[in-house]
């Protein structure tokens, strides 16, 4: 069923705005030549044969070492692995090269400039929107060759599909940094295939395919979520970045918070005409207090994720909105 209404639009818009190969060779067998006819010849050649064996055994190791060096060194020369959460695993390349065209020399610096664009990139209008944003700031590394940014056609495709939805649903105008006019037509990143959302508006669906939701008794969540994401594989890819943090056991409510943020809980007894709700601000604050130090240590000193900023979420003390705590009977 469709859950979109004026109240839903207002709620979603308000929350969103707060927003290498090692090669081995078989060991060569020593060539003993013709059959020795006399024992004195055999004894004379024994040392020579053993010496040859030793040399043959060493040769494959040296060759393998050289091959391995050739396979790994040039491909990643000058490159660094992408670790920013809005791009890692979500674009068709893994490494970038800095400084970028904006003269940002570190990914931490890039993050500060990209964070406010996160709401753009998540919207399900087109996967090319994220590709444009990420490759402008974190261009694909080509080793010694110049890094690759988005093609003009990629940008135009993203803008055509996303400019109006972003304005209508999230009150966001097309960012000036995303202008397509001066982008190249060659030696650039071509558009990727888009997948349409099954439901245009938030709809209650099973959240069993979202791994972090496993074990919670609330079995349904709303998709698209408040960030405009509707693809479960994309959501799982992004949430997987929190696996190291979850493994620290920094707070028992972390998985509950992540599940409710990425797939807002569908509840039957909501006190409003919006049949889904979010984790309460209070559990968000508890999780952040316990987990933020671990997050910074594990994730290159990045700040606490924008999507988990607690002021986004309703308070348990509010009489105007509903939210869910892990201790609520419906939660487990």
UniProtKB/TrEMBL annotation:
User: What domain of life is recorded for the organism?
Assistant: Eukaryota
Give the region (Disordered) as residue ranges.
Answer: 41-65
Q: Which residues form the FZ domain?
A: 79-200, 199-326
Q: Which InterPro entries match?
A: Frizzled/SFRP (IPR015526), Frizzled_dom (IPR020067), Frizzled_dom_sf (IPR036790)
Q: Name one GO biological process term.
A: canonical Wnt signaling pathway
The record, for SUPFAM superfamilies, names: Frizzled cysteine-rich domain (SSF63501)
> What are the GO MF terms of this UniProt record?
Wnt receptor activity; Wnt-protein binding
Q: Which GO terms describe its cellular component?
A: plasma membrane
Q: Where is the signal peptide?
A: 1-24
SMART domains according to UniProt: FRI (SM00063)
Keyword Disulfide bond included in the entry's annotation: yes
> Mind listing the UniProt keywords for this protein, alphabetically?
Developmental protein, Disulfide bond, Signal
Pfam families referenced in this protein's UniProt entry, alphabetically = Fz
User: Which cysteines form disulfides?
Assistant: 213-259
UniProt protein name = Frizzled-5
């Amino acid at each position: 069923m469709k859950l979109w209404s004026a109240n839903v639009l207002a709620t979603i818009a308000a929350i969103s705005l707060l927003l290498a190969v090692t090669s081995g060779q078989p060991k060569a067998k020593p060539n003993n030549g013709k059959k020795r006819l006399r024992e004195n010849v055999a004894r004379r050649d024994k040392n020579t044969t053993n010496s040859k064996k030793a040399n043959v055994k060493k040769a494959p190791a040296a060759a393998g070492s050289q091959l391995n060096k050739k396979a790994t060194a040039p491909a990643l020369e000058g490159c660094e692995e992408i670790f920013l959460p809005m791009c890692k695993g979500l674009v068709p390349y893994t490494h970038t090269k800095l400084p970028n065209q904006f003269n940002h020399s570190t990914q931490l610096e890039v993050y500060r400039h990209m964070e406010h664009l996160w709401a753009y990139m998540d919207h399900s209008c087109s996967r090319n929107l994220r590709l444009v944003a990420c490759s402008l700031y974190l261009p694909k590394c080509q080793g010694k060759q110049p890094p690759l940014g988005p093609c003009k056609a990629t940008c135009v495709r993203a803008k055509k599909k996303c400019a109006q939805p972003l304005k209508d649903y999230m009150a966001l105008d097309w960012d000036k940094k995303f202008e397509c006019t001066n982008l190249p037509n060659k030696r650039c990143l071509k558009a990727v295939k888009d997948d349409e959302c099954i439901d245009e508006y938030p709809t209650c669906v099973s959240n069993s395919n979202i791994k972090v939701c496993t074990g919670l008794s609330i079995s349904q969540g709303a998709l698209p979520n408040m960030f405009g994401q509707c693809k479960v594989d994309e959501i799982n890819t992004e949430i997987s970045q929190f696996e190291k943090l979850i493994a620290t056991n920094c707070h028992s409510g972390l998985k509950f918070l992540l599940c409710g943020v990425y797939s807002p809980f569908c509840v039957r007894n909501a006190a409003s005409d919006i049949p889904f709700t979010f984790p309460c601000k209070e559990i968000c604050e508890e999780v952040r207090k316990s987990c933020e130090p671990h997050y910074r240590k594990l994730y290159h000193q990045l700040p606490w994720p924008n999507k988990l900023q607690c002021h986004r979420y309703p308070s348990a003390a509010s009489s105007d909105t509903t939210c869910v705590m892990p201790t609520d009977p419906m939660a487990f």
